[in-house]
Amino acid sequence: MELNVLLYKLLLLSLFWVSASATNSSLSINFYATSCPTAELMVKNTVKSASESDPKIPGRLLRLLFHDCMVEGCDGSVLLEGNGTERTDPANGSLGGFAVVESAKKLLEFFCPETVSCADILALAARDAVVFAGGPMIQIPTGRRDGKVSSASNVRGNIIDTNFGLDEMVQIFSSKGLSLDDLVILSGAHTIGSAHCNTIRDRFQVDPKGNMTLIDTSLDKMYALKLLKQCPVGGSASITINNDPETSFKFDNQYYKNLVSHQGLFQSDSVLFSDERTKTKVVELSNSQDSFFQNWTSSFVKLTSMGVKTDNEGEIRRLCQSLNG
């Protein structure tokens, strides 16, 4: 009898250690509750101030997060500067929002030195950016550590290009553990933000007389003419256009309404409505902003949890743009 009791206690003890180990090796809600209780508030206030000064900040932070998480996981590797880093690849040349992350990091290093990772700051900043643009508030787990690897050669095979078809996008998303629905839902990030004109020039062509011909016939012709006015042939490469022509700085489900109206800015947007595999989901989200917000909450948590470093992996950088010396 005493032996059975002893074995039972040993079993409980072993289960406790397994449970504790699993908890320590994963992200958790309020990870900084003891080590830096105001961490999330400091990030939130930094994003709020930046967004009030520049309404383009939310879109930039959200895009920055995507480009971080899709390469090496959500580990802040896109923030590193230097020869051959992810930031040097042309696909990342137009990224913005770095200064906001650095501002939050500087503040956190003053109050909680070497405690809050740049990867967590970026994930929280993108989360808060969506809120300040009118989107849903999401509680996300924290505890990410910063990666030590950032290579430009890893970028192209992991980033969605604006001229991709559905199969190409599905291949990349599925390799990250993201579903077809996640692809449609997370593409809704294009409800805010902007793009350079060269990303859409292959959707139509203009003859010497100025007459336009649609190359991508899924594009609404009147919308294409508006795009042509904003992005004239021979115009400056620095000209940008809003992803969503209707509610440019508001995080809402207008993106999906645009797709149904054949007014997706990119080919990678338009294909979501033209392909039967994703069309039903697009229509559902176009009809209900509540449905979009509910779906976004789930998919965003999945996105920000991809390939994270925890425990003894990586480091907590003192500066987001450089590894600890």
UniProtKB/TrEMBL annotation:
Heme b binds at H190. It is an enzyme of class 1 (oxidoreductase). Pfam families: peroxidase. GO terms for molecular function: heme binding; lactoperoxidase activity; metal ion binding. The keyword 4Fe-4S does not apply. It comes from the Eukaryota. One of its GO terms (biological process) is hydrogen peroxide catabolic process. Binds 2 calcium ions per subunit. Keywords: Calcium, Disulfide bond, Heme, Hydrogen peroxide, Iron, Metal-binding, Oxidoreductase, Peroxidase, Secreted, Signal. The record marks R63 as: Transition state stabilizer. This is Peroxidase. The keyword Chloroplast does not apply. Its EC number is 1.11.1.7. The active site is at H67 (proton acceptor). Residues 1-22 form the signal peptide. Its cofactor is Ca(2+); heme b. Disulfide bonds join C36-C112, C69-C74, C118-C320, C197-C231. Belongs to the peroxidase family. Classical plant (class III) peroxidase subfamily. GO terms for cellular component: extracellular region. Residues 26-324 form the Plant heme peroxidase family profile domain. It catalyses: 2 a phenolic donor + H2O2 = 2 a phenolic radical donor + 2 H2O. The lineage of its organism: Eukaryota, Viridiplantae, Streptophyta, Embryophyta, Tracheophyta.
